[in-house]
User: What shape does this take?
Amino acid sequence: MKTIQYNKLIRDRIPEILKSKGKEAITEVLAPQDYLDRLHEKLDEELEEYHETCSIDELVDLVEVIYGILDYRCVTKEEFEEIRWLKKEKRGSFEKRLLLKGVIEPDSE
Assistant: This one.
């Protein structure tokens, strides 16, 4: 028997999935701050994977990690969407595909 070390945050059903394949997951429940730290690591990991593959599946994983962070911070998805909408109303979105190449500022005298 061999043990492969991972030491990374996993989705809740992974131990059950591994068991169905005849494997055993060694897990621990993280303390709150450790959990947040691992969520931040996972966010970086999933973003890197998205950059490598441009896969919609990786975007789904990113959103799931974001939902985990929101839950940790006691922000509902509805509250998050309201904040997102307000920011969109105030600053716009990215629909026009604008690239800011520079800003011309008037001379001050």
Residues 30-89 form one domain.
